[in-house]
Design a protein that fits this description.
Length: 461
Amino acid sequence: MDNYRKSIAFHNLGCKVNAYETSAMTLAFEEAGYRVVPFEGPADIYVINTCSVTNIADRKSRQMLHRAAKQNPDAVIVAVGCYVQAAYEELKKDPLVHVIVGNNRKADIVSIVEKYLSELPTGQESEKPTMVDVLDIAHENCYENLKVDASSSRNRAYIKIQDGCNMFCTYCIIPLTRGRIRSRDVADILTEAEHLAAQGIGEIVLTGIHVSSYGRDWKQKGEAGTADVSPLLSLLKRLHEIPQIHRIRLSSLEPRIVTPEFAAELKKLWKVCPHFHLSLQSGCDATLKRMNRRYTAAEYADCCKLLRSVYDRPALTTDVIVGFPGETEEEFSETMRYLEEIDLYEMHVFKFSPRKDTPAAKMAGQLTESVKASRSDVLIEMSERHSRAYRNAFAGEKAQILVEEMAQIGGKKYYLGFTPNYIRVAVPEEAKLEVNTTVEVTLTAEPVGTDCVLGQAPFLA
């Protein structure tokens, strides 16, 4: 079996970190001579990068593994990622899954799969082979280096800067599936950013499991570079110096990292977009305490106030969990009032999902799915209302957008792009723009689809 004749398909589930790692695995197989094909069609090998953040994610992971096996019963099915860590014993019993790769072994996936292929009996590829299991719980102290290129994105690229989390929120399984914090070497990050910039990437997004923890493990190990109060800020300053990089985004921030000093230094880096995802989870202090979130609602509000004092109308977004064990009607009402008051641009609303082996799964006061759903609906409506109001507040103003693609919305074609503060803008195709260029447009309050506003190019005005 010649490697260059094998086809391989990938499917990614879950977060931006998973997306980055899927891109890296795709590149590794391409460089090894494999032919990457769409997941929806036939392939010799299917790699599913799984997720386990919720019960729904678990179910989707199982479904995609089985869908791949159905598409080609003779294919080799490879399970990778967080669901592997959370449900290893279950996967070992699944006759449709052939190779299991742990979270800290993705850099070795090509050699793992090739070892498996080499042990297939000649002429009997359709028979169920012996399971190869490669599991590493990822609790090691070293960062697993992966690399990506610009092939999966023409204008924006994710750069993973750390892995793992030490926070141990009571609802979260991630420390169990991803392990403790491990930070990527600064030089390696800069090399990847410069490589992507040379390929035409103008915007990078720094991502990780807990981005605000970047560099904390260096202090624990007594390594060089600990003198900087904020290794993350130091990294941003170095990335800011790369000429071809025009925009830098942060995928998320812990509210406690945003001190007056941090915000003031961040503002000096004009390439850093005024778009900050500050995970909240609840606006009720009693609920936050049960979640082990380590800040109060007032402290979170102070963080928002600080960023708004430094930046002109920054885009502040968040995550909120509804239906956490013990959340009373009064506590949910407190969260509602709080969210109305702090008025965030977008909220990603999640219904509480009990994860095995987490403290929250064993807490008293588990709520029904109907209660969770009704509370979720309330906050989703609020988020949509606040998002519209935020976008419309910029009507009549000029803004720079990075043109990312052309797409059809409501039967018409538009160029789509984002402003620095993450307003999605649609410009009519008559503007004849070029993808991966930055253009100035006039924003309007006219909606295009559900989450865009119409942008008017100067020569179309």
